[in-house]
Amino acid sequence: MDSTAETLARWAHELDPDPDDLALARRSLLDTLAVTLAARDDELVRLSAELPDAARWAAVGHVLDFDDLHMESTTHISVVCVPATLAAGGDARAYLAGAGVMARIGVALGWSHYSSGWHATCTAGAPAAAVCAGIVLGLPAERLATAMALAVPAAGGVQRAFGTSGKSLQVGFAAEAGVRAARLAAAGATADPTALDAWLRLVGGDPDRVDVTGPAVPGGLAIKMFPCCYALQRPISALREQLADVEAAAVEEIRVRTPAGTVQPLIHHRPNTGLQGKFSMEYAVAAALLDPHPGFGSFTDEAVTRPEAQRLVRQVTVDETPGGDWLLDGRVEIGLRLRDGTSREASLELPPGSPGRPPSEADLAAKIADCGAEALLSEVDWTSASALLAEHFPGTEKKETA
Questions:
Q1: Which CATH code for domain 4-225+357-401?
Q2: Over the stretch 264-302, which tens digit does the pLDDT of each residue have?
Q3: In what residue span(s) does the MmgE/PrpD C-terminal domain sit (predicted)?
Q4: Those residues with Cβ within 8 angstroms of residue 389's Cβ, 6 or more apart along the chain or in another chain
Q5: Architecture of the domain made up of 230-348
């Protein structure tokens, strides 16, 4: 019986994308480039200046937490697979091969892996990035399996990094580790493909859950409408869609009811920085009440520490109902008690941008415009995208060859 790495490698090597797959790849490229360019003034650009291209582009692309998400695996697929593909000089097929592997490894890892504190984007991302780069390098299936095994030692990352530079940096480390593993495999390095199965079991996964049927990326990808953790997309949307007429100053008490699993990444209950605010249910509710569209300006240190925002944060109580095995399980229910004694309520199952409520072309165009990337991305493709990133984020690889 083939190992998991061999099964996935053979699927990736034989992948023949259909038009729907290619459309997803195109959308993923544009979305990832847009959110990466939106971060061009972020402090992480300086911090990551000495990292190789794949690591730097992935870290900067993730720092605003505005990149897409694969719901079934709870992984940010494109921010790993787009940079890894571009750093290796690849195209849509290489991206889709790695993205499909990442989705399937993430599903095999399961919700228990994520809920125990692992950052699945990193754990599933390192072997996936190896596939992206390996396809570009023309590796046969046997060598692709070796590349995945060589990426296993770097398949790590934890949720305690959320709200710090470490979150985006560990995503960058995963992308670069995969590219490095593919290059080593191409050079003749050896590894036991069953290492991937052994690792999956060690971190709570189940190799038997790997299923290579269906589209390149089963379930599609969720596109974020707000630049914060995906667990906050639903409560923000519920308030903005249903209670936008409520004045924040009139709110005296806020109660949020949601399945426990849906708040797994939300570890900051009294945030005082913009990064912490991206992982705070309490602050997300405050921002949704204060700001007409919680965007980049809502997740700065100054915005989070606004006196009125801090007042609202202290009024929030989160009631976690038992269970929940993905970020959109059940519904979110939000109740507001106002100073005049009246109450208002909102409830939502699917936020805009989720696979069940896919974004329109207008939604995507508005997001790209918000990122300040409208003109830059008008004619971009997989060939020109790497040059665009190298121009804005010249890393060590460009410096060494200059």
A1: 1.10.4100.10
A2: 999 999 999 999 999 999 999 999 999 999 999 999 999
A3: 226-376
A4: 33, 36, 53, 57, 83, 86
A5: 2-Layer Sandwich (3.30)
